[in-house]
Amino acid sequence: MVRFMKLLTRDERPPGEEPVSDLVPELEVSRAKRVRVLLAAACAPLLFSYTAIAAVLAVISFAADRTRFSATGALLAAGPGWLASWQVELDLGGHPLGVLPLLPTLAVGWLVARAAARAARRVGGRTPADAVPVVTVIAGAHALFGVLIALAAGGSPIDVNPLTAFCVPGLLAGLAAVAGVAKVCGLPAVVRDRFDPVAVHGLRAGALGLAALIACGAVVFTAATALSWSTVDSLFEPGFGASFGLFVLSVAYLPNAVVAALSFTTGPGFSVGSLTVGMFGYQEGQVPGVPVLAGIPSHHAVWWPALLLLPALVGALVGWRIRQIDEDPMLRMRAVAVAGALVAFGCVILGTVSGGRLGDGPFDPVSVPVGVASVIAFCWIVVPGGFVAFFAGPHEAAAPPGEPEVEDIAEVEEEVEPVEEPEALEDEALDQEAEEELARELGEDADEVPVEPEPEAEPEAEPEQDDVADDAVTESTDGSGDESASGDDR
């Protein structure tokens, strides 16, 4: 019986040809482990970010002068701080606070993306369908946590809209989770398969262009801050506690300042209350005493338009990236348009999250004209990028002067045929009439003298007829002579 079972289960394949799945069996993740992994991915970023915000607030309050440190107060204040890190607008005693720092948002988004990627790997995610539970659990956990904080803050000096506290953290956490599981679950391959290759090249070039524009804004902001270092130094107070708080606040708002510098470099500029700073216009106003804003100029300068060379170079860089994707210049131009659309959309998102309400005082609101900025950013990518992509890329070789192409010959024949058709029809009609007339004449001749046509003997028949006629004439002449002779004899 054992021998019979071995025969039934014996593998007939030669050694070395076993499939990989047989050699390394795939371990199925149990349901309990899957639940534990998903809960850890949802709760770990929440707890870590909340604890980090509470620790920062505790250090600031402990280092500040003439303040009383309270661990309970730091823990309670960490709730609205956590919502602010997810760009949820707060209401401080009836004064809206909508311009929120972007650096904490980037930090918590990175935490969520890392947790989502780790969870997808642990549950064996390989397809986009495997990413759905991870993203759903993380987004739902952040949305519920935001609602709990909003409800707990009810009745305190800090008020939060529960609907906003539910939607905004859930949406942003979901997007961060998608970014984290994208590579693990093969989302880039799905995008490449579903989208046109030209559009995929355009999206990549657009991401490069957006990153380059942000880098230009960072360079301009750094240069302006360095040139105004004396003002920066004067804004820090002598005490360590207040200076530390201003330093943390300035670092948290660094991405917002870079976005404002980006808008200024491309042309539209930005505004803080009544202050408006643009490439071709300037309106004076008050500036908050924060070191991160020390680089804002106090008057307009005639050399500012020279900075427009930076976005022009970024557009040329995008065109240079696209120049080799296809031999058809029009396909390259379409890729440049896709890149410009992505850059314009990115400018809308960055301008929206970097500005907002700032109380009801002279610094309200802080804004970037996102509509104008997106259109101008699109033009900065499309115009120089299209020029470079069109002329720097490959083109089809022109035909030699004496050898026209096959398409050109076909076009010439199509153009000539309609002109020659009437003449051909007239010649054919004339030939047909001539043949009919010749046939009628030949028919009449055949009625008078029925002669069997012999094409090969015709040239020889004519001399024979002539000879016969000559003989007949000779005989008749001879006969007439004989008759006259006989008459004479009579």
Which tags fit this structure?
490 residues; mainly alpha; four-stranded antiparallel β-sheet; three-stranded antiparallel β-sheet; 17 helices; disordered N terminus; disordered C terminus
Protein model, in words:
With 490 residues, this protein is mainly alpha-helical. Helices cover 68% and strands 4% of the residues. The protein has helices at residues 2-9, 20-23, 31-63, 71-85, 103-122, 128-152, 162-181, 187-194, 197-227, 229-235, 240-252, 254-266, 309-322, 329-354, 370-392, 406-448, 458-489; strands spanning 90-92, 95-97, 158-159, 270-272, 275-277, 282-283, 366-367. The strands form 2 sheets. The protein has a 4-stranded antiparallel sheet with strand order 6-5-4-7. A hairpin with a 2-residue loop joins strand 4 (270-272) and strand 5 (275-277).
What are the SSEs and their pairings?
Blueprint: H1 2-9, H2 20-23, H3 31-63, H4 71-85, E1 90-92, E2 95-97, H5 103-122, H6 128-152, E3 158-159, H7 162-181, H8 187-194, H9 197-227, H10 229-235, H11 240-252, H12 254-266, E4 270-272, E5 275-277, E6 282-283, H13 309-322, H14 329-354, E7 366-367, H15 370-392, H16 406-448, H17 458-489
Antiparallel strand pairs: 1-2, 1-3, 4-5, 4-7, 5-6
Helix pairs in contact: 3-4, 3-5, 3-6, 3-11, 5-6, 5-7, 6-7, 9-12, 9-13, 9-14, 12-14, 13-15, 14-15
